[in-house]
Amino acid sequence: MELLLQTLINGILAAGIYALVASGLALAVGVVGIVNFAHGEFTMIGAFVAYLLFVSTGLDPFLSLGLAALVLFLVGAITYLGLIRPVLAAPELNQMLLTFGLSVALQNIALLVFGADTRVVSTSYQGATLSLGSLSFGVPPLLAFGLSVGILGALYGFLDRTRLGLAVRAVAQNRLAPGLLGIETRQVYLLAFGLSAALAGVAGVMLSVMLYASPTVGFAYTLKAFAIIVMAGLGNLRGVVPAAVILAMAEALVSTYVPGGGGWVEAVFFLVIFVALTWRSWRAA
């Protein structure tokens, strides 16, 4: 029983970062209407921003979240203006090929600049744990989970309680009607894509402490984010959190209880996508 509880706790703590990355992808898909295969590379950039700040100034990664979010928002805005906006009217295949090419380009640029070696941000509390009876909580995952909950709460509050947030929701529901009400759709697209990159970048900062920074660290999180938004429903931001919890729980249970489960964990998202699509097809029939 204790092993099961510890496994569930580990899954819940991992779900925070999953939800951050997937919420950013859900914004890009739901508001801008583009499937961004380079989303994980924004996470990778966030991890390297935290690493560079740490080695150059000694700034704790969790204290650099705001700066990293600003940097990634600007990266997302520049990406939107320079690459995404010109292809918004193009066929979806063109859009997907563009973002896939961007993903490959960013990975290779990172390989040229940083090399293939992983970079670890070694904080004083990196291996620290808190105990509650027989259960243990890693300090970095616990901090990452708490911050993820706070950031997602702020995101939902922004979307629900501000005029700009309501404009984002209106564009997500109907891309034509808001323009008739004076809402600048292209500006909303810019904001949504910038926020999408910022959320991914913040998750990358947390990963720099919990795992490492490397040119390929974001790829797995792109796949996980796709699985989550497929399970939640494309563009359904509200469904992202429960879907992230389900995926993280499934991975934790497979890792703990399936023989050789560590090697199967990265395939769990395939099963999640298959089950979600099959279930939706069955309901529609």
UniProtKB/TrEMBL annotation:
CDD domains named in the record: TM_PBP1_LivH_like
GO cellular component: plasma membrane
Keyword Phosphoprotein part of the UniProt annotation: no
Transmembrane segments: 12-35, 42-59, 65-84, 96-115, 135-159, 188-212, 264-282
GO molecular-function term, one example from the UniProt record: transmembrane transporter activity
Compartments (UniProt record): Cell membrane
Biological process according to GO: amino acid transport
Pfam families in the record: BPD_transp_2 (PF02653)
InterPro entries to which the protein is assigned, alphabetical: ABC_transp_permease, BCAA_transport_permease
Membrane topology summary: Multi-pass membrane protein
Keyword line: Amino-acid transport, Cell membrane, Membrane, Transmembrane, Transmembrane helix, Transport
Entry similarity comment: Belongs to the binding-protein-dependent transport system permease family. LivHM subfamily.
Protein name (database record): Branched-chain amino acid ABC transporter permease
Organism: Meiothermus ruber
